[in-house]
Amino acid sequence: MFILGVILLLLGLFLHIPILTIIGAVLLVVGAVLFILGSVGKPVAGRRHYW
């Protein structure tokens, strides 16, 4: 999710498509939060790791 967010964010910025930029930024933030929660050992949706 994190990598997809980065890709969509960059595509939105280079192609000047605002919706891709917004979706990419949201996915980037959600992916980062889930990665941090999973790395500290807090279960996310019943799983210890999220990937």
From TrEMBL:
Keyword terms, alphabetized: Membrane, Transmembrane, Transmembrane helix
Pfam families on file: DUF6131 (PF19626)
Transmembrane segments: 6-38
Organism domain of life: Bacteria
InterPro entries named in the record: DUF6131 (IPR046134)
Protein name: DUF3096 domain-containing protein
Organism: Dactylosporangium roseum
Lineage: Bacteria, Bacillati, Actinomycetota, Actinomycetes, Micromonosporales
